[in-house]
Amino acid sequence: MTKFVCAILLMLVMAFAIKDTYAGKEGSLRPKECATACALRCSATQYKEACLTYCNLCCAKCLCVPSGTYGHKEECPCYNNWKTKKGGPKCP
């Protein structure tokens, strides 16, 4: 029973560590981590190719990807504030 509880606690700690690694404040990612963070960010969209393309561009510039598959852009001001020529959001 003790081993089971320890295993659960270890998984919870790792889940929080992964969340903090792949989403968070600007500059929290290294360029090589962008692909993994964007794969998570774009996992729920039906437009995966476009989402991954723009997410990786934004991550390369900002070194940050918001948590989850939608929203939470306040976590990454650079990601949130980069706009298209028409004023729409550049980053998914």
TrEMBL record:
Keywords: Signal. The keyword Signal applies. Residues 1-23 form the signal peptide. The keyword Lipoprotein does not apply. Belongs to the GASA family. This is Gibberellin-regulated protein 12-like. The lineage of its organism: Eukaryota, Viridiplantae, Streptophyta, Embryophyta, Tracheophyta.
